[in-house]
From TrEMBL:
<feature type="transmembrane region" description="Helical">
    <location>
        <begin position="35"/>
        <end position="57"/>
    </location>
</feature>
<keyword id="KW-1133">Transmembrane helix</keyword>
<keyword id="KW-0997">Cell inner membrane</keyword>
<feature type="transmembrane region" description="Helical">
    <location>
        <begin position="99"/>
        <end position="116"/>
    </location>
</feature>
<keyword id="KW-0133">Cell shape</keyword>
<dbReference type="Pfam" id="PF04093">
    <property type="entry name" value="MreD"/>
</dbReference>
<comment type="function">
    <text>Involved in formation of the rod shape of the cell. May also contribute to regulation of formation of penicillin-binding proteins.</text>
</comment>
<keyword id="KW-1003">Cell membrane</keyword>
<comment type="similarity">
    <text>Belongs to the MreD family.</text>
</comment>
<keyword id="KW-0472">Membrane</keyword>
<keyword id="KW-0812">Transmembrane</keyword>
<feature type="transmembrane region" description="Helical">
    <location>
        <begin position="128"/>
        <end position="147"/>
    </location>
</feature>
<dbReference type="InterPro" id="IPR007227">
    <property type="entry name" value="Cell_shape_determining_MreD"/>
</dbReference>
<dbReference type="InterPro" id="IPR026034">
    <property type="entry name" value="MreD_proteobac"/>
</dbReference>
<protein>
    <recommendedName>
        <fullName>Rod shape-determining protein MreD</fullName>
    </recommendedName>
</protein>
Length: 157
């Protein structure tokens, strides 16, 4: 399989996971699957995957969730840029240390999303906006192992 197809399939799986319905009481516990996958690829292949892929994936998430076009694109681009700046350091950290950094990046993403929603009158202030960041950070080690094994099986470099 060509590397681009495998990369595209991982993004497609992330979008399908984003589309999964959650019960009303657990909506704050939904992980940021698409951001998790794009952050992995930015860390693993920083010269092939970057801000452009993050923008495209953010646009797909906007279309999928029916929100404002460009909201997730903007936040994903900012987070992917920050991650691409620090990718050398991130590669040296242990997986649990990377998870803390991923949690911080997703927290920034959640805060930016909240600011946009609050400005438009769609969101009320609550600390629960950071719960997806915690859940995503907890899922990082397992998703890192799965995506790294996919990358190694298909020899994506």
């Amino acid at each position: 399989m060509k590397p681009f197809i495998v990369f595209f399939l991982t993004l497609l799986v992330a979008l399908m996971l984003e589309a999964l319905p959650f019960p009303e009481g657990f909506v704050w516990y939904r992980p940021e699957w698409a951001l998790l996958v794009i952050l992995y690829w930015v860390i693993a292949l920083p010269f092939r995957v970057g801000v452009g892929a993050a923008w495209f994936l953010g646009l797909m998430v906007d279309l999928l969730q029916g929100g404002i076009i460009g909201q997730h694109s903007l936040t994903y681009v900012i987070i992917a840029y920050v991650c691409s700046v620090f990718y050398k350091r991130l590669r040296m950290y242990h997986t649990w240390q990377q998870a803390v950094f991923i949690c911080l990046l997703v927290s920034i993403n959640q805060l930016l999303d909240f600011w946009i929603d609050h400005y438009l009158g769609h969101a009320d202030p609550t600390l629960m906006i950071f719960m997806p960041a915690v859940i995503t950070g907890l899922l990082w080690p397992w998703s890192f192992i799965v995506l790294r094994s996919v990358r190694r099986i298909y020899a994506i470099r």
